[in-house]
């Protein structure tokens, strides 16, 4: 079997916890950009949360969009540098909670960026509090110690059902719990980047990930949870594909 | 449109001057009394080849600005009162990232939703509070429509010179009045001229990481850069205007709309033999301390003339004169002061019938 080459855009080992999906996602982004020949004109926007590591790990011009504001920061960058590839790598807390307005209106404006949202069901960077948009009912977090209830925090929301109502280019959800799904997710990321290359509109790819550290699970247990529980609430697949599948 | 003189509103002068200064990115959210800036940008930005965005709120507009500034554009946002509160997050981040931008605060009077009319009670917020953390912003206060244009034009230059946020502190009256305005020449900004911007570079070229400065160069180095910047701005950027201060017994100190009334008050008072003078700070940060250093000995006191309840600028006057003279306050809150009221007050002060300011 051919040895998998590490993308050259990854220049530094960084501090994601072992078994965390963020590192896989970062690698997929780098692989896709290189395979598409787009790595030489890319600007990345990361959130101040766990995805921040990617600012250091990847050899791209990069800006940190302080917690929640990534989509708006990316809008500013893309408007000034319309010929460059601008992607966002941010958490679900950032994109769907504190920054929901920013993410929604970037989609509503159909800004041609590729937005990658990491749904790990929790606030990773701050140590494991509830994420209003994605923590599953019953899940224990530092701010829902007995398990999330609807009375306490409402239900988690499939935000892609919100985004699919906007006139955008592409909305899809992938997962990472086995090789098949990593591959499927990679194709989604690639699609989102191609759309940008082809001067099409806003692409949003949500990725079901995990946070073994704050879920207090081994990476294998965390993968099982995504497969058996998370995916039931957040179904995988393509929600919008304006241009039609290729 | 491109003639050098126009009859226009203060707000329009700010917007037109920004475009002429090479501003090619504007994002903002409507709030009275600064709406004309946003509307002017919406109508005219396209002609200049730039981007206008009506943001979903002030926070998002500021976030767009820090993306645009990092990508090399000259950019601006504007707001007032409650909207300016929301801008402070962005001002703090732009400062921590060492990014240049121009932010306009057209003050409106009052706490909370307050009034939509003129006021000067956001002085402290503008000159002391960029947002959380330790940062300083140059704050320029125009007193005429022409000055709205001139200071905005200059603000872009200063923002780049120091890689810092520059604030134009206007108020409802200056922003809404219509006067003949001298317009600056056009300047084409090259978004590729700096080596620190995000351009999307090919492999082998060193990449730029735009984030809190301390994360890229370390806390100590970042603090040193900041401190040196504060000192340089303080030393180089003090601006003011004086009217008949040479032999003044009482010096009125006022900026923006209040200073215009003070100017007529000084002229009128002189006709009655009352020796008033005016010191008008144009930069309210850095505060023009150099002007106070050379005030003549005949000055018996300073009168801060402000549309606020607290003597917000009064603090700066006492610091600037090193508490060498008493400070009196003519504080009119929501009302624009009148020359008659001011002269009457000054007569009382000179007759020893008014106590200096008690609460700062
Ligand atoms: C305005 C603001 N509020 C709160 C924080 C603290 N904070 C940093 S990251 C974060 C949550 C991160 O969660 P998420 O966006 O889901 O990303 P993850 O770390 O899980 O990848 C919070 C609350 C902040 N930096 N700024
Ligand atoms: S805290 Fe959670 S999300 Fe963050 S790096 Fe660790 S495992 Fe990943």
Automatic annotation (TrEMBL), chain A:
Transmembrane segments: none annotated. Signal peptide: none annotated. SUPFAM superfamilies: Thiamin diphosphate-binding fold (THDP-binding). The gene is korB_6. Keywords: Oxidoreductase. PANTHER family: 2-OXOGLUTARATE OXIDOREDUCTASE SUBUNIT KORB-RELATED, SUBUNIT OF PYRUVATE:FLAVODOXIN OXIDOREDUCTASE. Gene3D superfamilies: 3.40.50.970. Residues 61-207 form the Thiamine pyrophosphate enzyme TPP-binding domain. It comes from Sporomusa sphaeroides DSM 2875. Its EC number is 1.2.-.-. This is 2-oxoglutarate oxidoreductase subunit KorB. GO terms for molecular function: oxidoreductase activity.
From TrEMBL, chain B:
Residues 16-193 form the Pyruvate flavodoxin/ferredoxin oxidoreductase pyrimidine binding domain. Its EC number is 1.2.-.-. Signal peptide: none annotated. GO terms for molecular function: oxidoreductase activity. Residues 248-325 form the Pyruvate:ferredoxin oxidoreductase core domain. Gene3D superfamilies: 3.40.50.920, 3.40.50.970. Keywords: Oxidoreductase. Transmembrane segments: none annotated. This is 2-oxoglutarate oxidoreductase subunit KorA. It comes from Sporomusa sphaeroides DSM 2875. The gene is korA_6.
């Amino acid at each position: 079997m051919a040895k998998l080459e590490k993308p050259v855009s990854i220049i530094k080992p960084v501090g994601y916890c072992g078994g965390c999906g963020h590192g896989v996602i970062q690698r997929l982004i780098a692989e896709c950009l290189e395979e598409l020949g787009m790595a030489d004109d890319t600007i990345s926007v990361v959130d101040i949360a766990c995805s921040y590591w990617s600012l250091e790990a990847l050899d791209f011009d990069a800006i940190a969009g302080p917690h929640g504001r990534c989509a708006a920061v990316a809008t500013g960058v893309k408007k000034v540098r319309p010929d460059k590839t601008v992607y966002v790598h941010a958490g679900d807390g950032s994109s769907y909670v504190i920054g929901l307005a920013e993410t929604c209106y970037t989609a509503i404006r159909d800004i041609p960026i590729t937005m990658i949202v990491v749904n790990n069901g929790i606030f990773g960077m701050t140590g494991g509090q509830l994420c209003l948009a994605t923590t599953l009912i019953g899940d224990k977090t530092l701010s829902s110690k007995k398990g999330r209830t609807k009375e306490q925090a409402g239900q988690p929301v499939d935000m892609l059902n919100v985004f699919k109502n906007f006139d955008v280019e592409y909305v899809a959800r992938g997962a990472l719990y086995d090789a098949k799904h990593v591959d499927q997710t990679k194709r989604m990321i690639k699609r989102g980047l191609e759309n940008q290359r082809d001067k099409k509109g806003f692409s949003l790819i949500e990725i079901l990930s995990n946070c073994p550290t704050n879920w207090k699970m081994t990476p294998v247990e965390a993968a099982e949870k995504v497969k058996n529980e998370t995916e039931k609430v957040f179904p995988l697949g393509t929600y919008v594909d304006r241009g039609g599948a290729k | 449109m491109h003639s050098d003189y126009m009859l226009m509103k203060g707000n329009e002068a700010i917007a037109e001057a920004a475009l002429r200064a090479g501003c090619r990115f504007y994002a903002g959210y409507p709030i009275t009394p600064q709406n004309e800036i946003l509307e002017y940008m919406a109508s005219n930005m396209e002609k200049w080849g730039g981007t206008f965005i009506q943001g979903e709120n002030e926070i998002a507009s500021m976030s767009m600005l820090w993306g645009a500034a990092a990508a090399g554009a000259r950019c601006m946002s504007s707001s007032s009162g409650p909207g300016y509160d929301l801008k402070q997050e962005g001002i703090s981040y732009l400062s921590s990232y060492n990014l240049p931008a121009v932010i306009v605060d057209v003050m409106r009077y009052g706490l909370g939703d307050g009034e939509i009319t003129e006021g000067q009670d956001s002085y402290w917020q503008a000159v002391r509070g960029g947002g959380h953390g330790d940062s300083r912003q140059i704050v320029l206060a125009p007193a005429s429509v022409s000055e709205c244009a001139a200071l905005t034009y200059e603000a872009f230059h200063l923002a780049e010179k120091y890689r810092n946020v520059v604030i134009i502190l206007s108020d409802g009256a200056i922003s809404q009045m219509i006067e003949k305005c001298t317009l600056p020449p056009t300047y084409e900004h090259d978004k590729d001229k700096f080596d620190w911007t995000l351009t999307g570079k090919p492999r082998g070229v060193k990449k730029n990481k735009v984030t809190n400065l301390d994360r890229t160069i370390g806390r100590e180095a970042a603090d040193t850069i900041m401190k040196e910047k504060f000192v340089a701005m303080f030393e180089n950027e003090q601006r003011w205007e004086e009217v008949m201060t040479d032999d003044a017994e009482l010096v009125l100190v006022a900026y923006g709309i209040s200073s215009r009334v003070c100017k007529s008050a000084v002229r009128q008072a002189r006709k009655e033999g009352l020796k008033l003078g005016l010191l008008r700070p144009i930069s309210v940060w850095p505060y023009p301390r150099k002007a106070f250093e050379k005030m003549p000995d005949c000055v018996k006191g300073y009168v801060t003339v402000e549309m606020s309840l607290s003597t917000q600028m009064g603090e700066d006057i006492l610091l600037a004169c090193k508490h060498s003279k008493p400070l009196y306050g003519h504080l009119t809150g929501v009302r624009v002061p009148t020359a008659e009221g001011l002269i009457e007050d000054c007569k009382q002060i000179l007759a020893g019938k008014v106590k200096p300011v008690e609460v700062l």
